[in-house]
Amino acid sequence: MNQTDVIEPIHETMEEMYVNMGPQHPSTHGVLRLMLKLDGEVVTGVTPYIGYLHRCHEKIGENRIYTQVIPYTDRLDYLASMYNNFGYVLTVERLMGLQVPERAEYMRVILAELQRIASHLIWMGTFGLDLGNFTIFMYCFREREKILDLFESVSGQRLNYSFYRIGGMPLDFPESFLTECKAFLEWFKPRLPEYDAVMTDNIIFQKRVQGLGKLDQKTAIDYAISGPMLRGSGIKWDLRRNDPYSIYDRFEFEIPVGSTGDVWDRYMVRRQEMDESVKIVEQALRDLPPGEIMGKVPKKLRPPAGDMYSRVESPRGELGFYIVSDGSEKAYRYKVRSPAFVNLSVLPVIGPGHLVADMVAILGSIDIVLGEVDR
To answer: Which of 79, 105, 110 is nearest to 93 (CA)?
Structure first.
């Protein structure tokens, strides 16, 4: 039997037992608790328990003026804070009908795609570490540090940036940023084949993950899966292309997809997305126009009464913000659509039938961030 085949329970009469995986467990990528139902070492059922990191984000957002919510969005997906900022300010701008200057739009895309690369790097590094590959962990964190250096030069921060503003950007790029960013991309592109050498082309890794956690297209759609998980199942859906926002319709890039929807396909989609993000950043740097970085925004933001749902393609999938305005300085209702939360919901479907050790790989391939799951 192939190790990656779904395994039937060993003995029908064997007494099943329940084992906690987490919440204090390095391979649950945060405070996630999985209740595993086992028949020997075969998982026959898995139930995720969440909420250990709940901070009441949405209710806090209803009790802060619109500009004060931006720093709170950083703490959702804290590995992709720039994209959280992006999604939130875009929703408020659409609710108010604000125009964002051209240069600010290009700045947003550059920072967002660098953030996508940084997020995928930390995912690939920790995913490899989960499976015993310490080398890829060191490689990925080496590159991520250089991206954080770029972010620090722009915003002064390395994790929670609070950098995007409703109507534009607070500061322009420093004089050295464009040169340093181009230099990073030229340095980074030859590093990608290194990842392939130690991970993608590694036959042990291939045999370890191929066939695990298969997610078929119908189940993916039924569970509203998005991002690399959805594309890993062969569905070519990316909001940057299928529902363009900002200026993404101006760039040429491919949408990587898988074929079988297993852990291997989800890995390959994220690996290839880093190539495409490099292309987008290079195009945006080339076409970056001069000009203003902040549009005309009233000092006190009072969106007209109404509601708005806006979404962006974060590194984990469709990150949506829903705001209901009553015409005051604070949102009447505020809701975040977390792609990590939605994607995690399919784990009880794709987990059973595998060994306990395989649950580490399957969970890692979902790429959750518990700050966003729990909110």
So the answer is: 105
The CATH number that applies at residue 144 is: 1.10.645.10
Closest CA to 37 of 14, 9, 18, 11: 18
The residues, ordered by sequence, that sit 6+ positions from 299 with a Cβ below 8 Å of its Cβ are none
For a pLDDT cut of 70, what percent of the chain falls above it? 96
- H-helix or E-strand spanning residue 18: strand 17-21
Helices (H), the chain: 57-61, 70-74, 81-96, 102-130, 134-155, 177-188, 191-195, 203-209, 217-222, 228-232, 239-242, 263-287, 339-344, 347-350, 356-366, 370-374
Residue 313, domain extent:
17-374
Whether omega for the bond prior to residue 339 falls within 30 degrees of 0, making it cis, is no
Question: Is residue 6 domain-resident?
Answer: no
Computed on alpha carbons and rounded to an integer, the radius of gyration of the chain in Å comes to 21
Q: Which two tokens stand for residue 174?
A: 């420093």
146-200 residue pLDDT tens: 999 999 999 999 999 999 999 999 999 999 999 999 999 999 999 999 999 999 9
Count of domains observed in the chain: 1
The answer as to whether 150 is a domain residue is yes
Question: Would you list the DSSP string of 27-54?
Answer: GGTSS-EEEEEEETTEEEEEEEE--TT-
Please enumerate in sequence order all residues whose Cβ is within 8 A of that of 153, keeping only pairs 6 or more positions apart, or say none.
174, 176, 177, 180
Return the closest-CA partner of residue 314 out of 282, 330, 336, 333: 336
Has residue 7 been placed in a domain?
Answer: no
Residue at 10 is within a domain: no
Residue-level pLDDT at 1: 45
Write the DSSP assignment of 234-277 as a string of letters: T----HHHHS--TTGGGS-------SS-SHHHHHHHHHHHHHHH
